Predict the structure.
Amino acid sequence: MKQAVVVCHRGASLQAPENTIASLEGAIALGAEVVEFDVRPSKDGVLYVMHDATVDRTTDGSGRISDMTSEEIDCLDAGSWFDEAFSGQRVPRLDAFLDACKGRIGTYVEIKEGDPAEIRDMLAVRGMLADAWTFSFDQAIRAEARAKVPDLRRMVLYAHVGSVERAVALDAHILEFHEDDLEEGLIKEAKQAGLITQMFYAGSDRTVFEKAVRCGIEQMNIDQVEIFRAVERELLTPV
């Protein structure tokens, strides 16, 4: 059994402010193979790495990011809310964030808002398509990505599609499971269908990580990288 690919959820978000260059660098330092991050456009159409619809929680500003110009967003402090040591971190523009990822770490782009084709082109011009994939909770964005950018790999959630067969019918490349639908039989079925299996888990319960390893999950989208790797080593190291 191989080690799972680690996907750092919003970067190393327990060690640095989420969705910043600092959290990206932290993910790389942790040895993660992929960084997960969220994308939204500004009022003037510049794509930014930002999870929430508003900047209130993760910056010193307030308001909807879609109502703010890029000039306004570029002035925000996106680090002090987490720790004064990160004072001066900015909300990254997507182009700069991808430049910092290129050749160093794979990318999982969750599109909160934005044009999948524009994101695909930004990845392609940097030669990053092979190590990238996308997902959105917005059904319209998922459909648009499938129709407009078939060469950008797409993920679906088992909770949304309800079966491996449906994931295949939607031309998905990656099928993500959660704690409540993780079953060894489903993982095997998904692999046999040619899907990459992934699990999202935001917690730190070792028994959940143990179950994921025993089920043979291929990718883990997580916050607690060190705990997962420790559990994985224990289970995969021959006695």
Observations:
- The beta strands are 5-9, 34-41, 47-49, 106-111, 132-135, 153-157, 174-177, 196-201, 219-222.
- The longest helix spans residues 225-236.
- The chain has ten helices and nine strands.
